């Protein structure tokens, strides 16, 4: 516990403007009310879920929200593509404890120029030493009763959230591009705020850009065409409004030669104009997915749902920025075969954005729920066969990851609720929170049936809408609303073991897929000498080919690879999921004909899921691999995002 709040005066200290903002939102008021009282001995006994969340400490933020908490961020920023910086002001609205003397913000790689009150009078501040992972605490002295602080600042090159792309790194090749990636703890490197997922904030923004570029954000887009900037004819401004309180990692921005195409009444695609038509074709099912998702777990709470396709250096597959999912162009296969990624990011509109992990130790509450939900959407929209295949592929990844973590002697990272104190949350990133988390919900589904589990999940999203959640608080809720306080049942389902212990409990249900079993049979036949022409692959979908590649054993020869390549054209595949798996085999078996494609792939794509394993595989090829890895990396590195560089650094020692 950091500070002991003294009185419960939240109601009287909330300014009228703030009060109006919160009036329609019971949750933040409740949270503030709780933070004012939760340290009394009476409250310390309180075991209702919200009380548990309110007293949980986030080890990855310097903030002390019990004392002073950011409730709203208003940004006024200008993008300078020559200097590669954003600069301007962040005006923060605070909810403070009665005698609050200071507010502590998170910052990382920011130039803090000055801090003032609402009237422009300077406020005293200090930038602490901090550390490499968490950045530096910015402590601002608060005059009695202050509810607003204004931080004037600029970003620095080398921050972890922003990537500034030269025109050559874009699809259009003519104009530059900028995008942000907040999750997990990067927002502090472009916005000085309290960067903890339990400190929900609304935001507004005015973003000034060169007049040939468009700015979009994870918020309602108030000025789709931009508006003039007085005295600056070569610039225009875009304004945004996020009225729902969100975790700061979900504040996101992109600027570029961005166009828009509608997909349905509430859905559409943003992309560089050069690829807009292709992107719109790929995501044609967005509206059906949105409708299916709302039917499953309750109304969509965010107004519109759009996807923004980014340039290929985007380090992730997708990022669930509210109202505007950010996506890698590697999902544009041309045949809509990789759109489960959209189902995934859309599902986060409930699991993650509506009900949010309160700390990064509760990450599985975001990702495990989302993988489960994603698969339900896929089943609804594309049928059980496709959903089953996706489940099996995920399960297979989980088995491999658990084995790797075991070999690496990292049992802590096989837990759904790991201890991450002093650990970079990025280091915990793996299939465990995703697939073990989903397996936990599937175990509950197997026991209770879909009807009961769905009712529970729908209720959960409703009960904790616009709140943050911890694993401990979830257990209390689960007990009350699904287990009905049946302690024997809780024990027999091994709930505690699932959530707090390492490995996979033995009541996990292994998924099956008849379509993939058939593929497995064909892989065996091939390895036993059948020619590709004799294999029954005629009606295979991309997922089946993807699985086929995972079924080829280490004894695969270069001649066999050549035969497969000739029959199926893997080296020329437009499906990056298939291509990256094929390239892994090419590295492992030193299949030369794929090497030029490997080079081009690593130079152009920055998606970590693909590139990090390829560098790792190269490093394992004594004799030729490490040299090739280093030479390709030297060429590719300037184009990679800071996050991708950090990830490759782990497998490519200096
Ligand atoms: N929220 C994640 C991305 C993320 C996780 C960013 C942790 C930073 C830290 C997103 O929803 C996600 O899981 N993306 C996946 C795709 C998905 C289909 C599994 C990805 O990027 O590969
Ligand atoms: Zn996710």
Plain-language structure description:
- The protein is an alpha+beta fold.
- 39% of the residues lie in helices and 19% in strands.
- The protein has 24 helices and 22 strands.
- The chain starts with 9 loop residues before the first helix and ends with a helix.
- 48% of the residues are buried.
- Mean pLDDT is 93; it is low at 1-44.
- Bound molecules: ligand BES and zinc ion.
- Zinc ion is lined by residues 344, 348, 367, 370.
Structural category: alpha+beta
Please tally the β strands and state the result. Answer: 22
Could you state the oligomeric state of the chains shown?
A: single chain
Please state the average pLDDT score: 93
Give the helix proportion (percent range). 25-40%
Number of helix segments? Answer: 24
Reconstruct the topology from this structure.
Blueprint: H1 10-13, H2 16-23, H3 26-37, H4 41-44, H5 49-54, E1 68-80, E2 85-96, E3 102-107, E4 110-116, E5 125-127, E6 136-141, E7 148-155, E8 162-165, E9 177-180, E10 201-210, E11 214-217, E12 220-221, E13 227-228, E14 235-246, E15 253-256, E16 258-264, E17 267-272, H6 276-282, H7 286-297, E18 305-309, E19 318-319, E20 324-327, H8 340-347, E21 355-357, H9 363-382, H10 384-407, H11 425-428, H12 431-448, H13 450-463, E22 467-469, H14 471-481, H15 487-492, H16 495-500, H17 514-527, H18 542-550, H19 558-568, H20 576-588, H21 595-604, H22 608-619, H23 625-636, H24 642-651
Parallel strand pairs: 1-10, 17-18, 18-20, 21-22
Antiparallel strand pairs: 1-2, 2-7, 3-6, 4-7, 5-6, 8-9, 9-15, 10-14, 11-15, 12-14, 13-14, 16-17, 19-20
Helix pairs in contact: 7-8, 7-9, 8-9, 9-10, 9-12, 10-12, 12-13, 17-18, 18-20, 20-22, 21-23, 22-23, 22-24
This protein binds ligand BES and zinc ion.
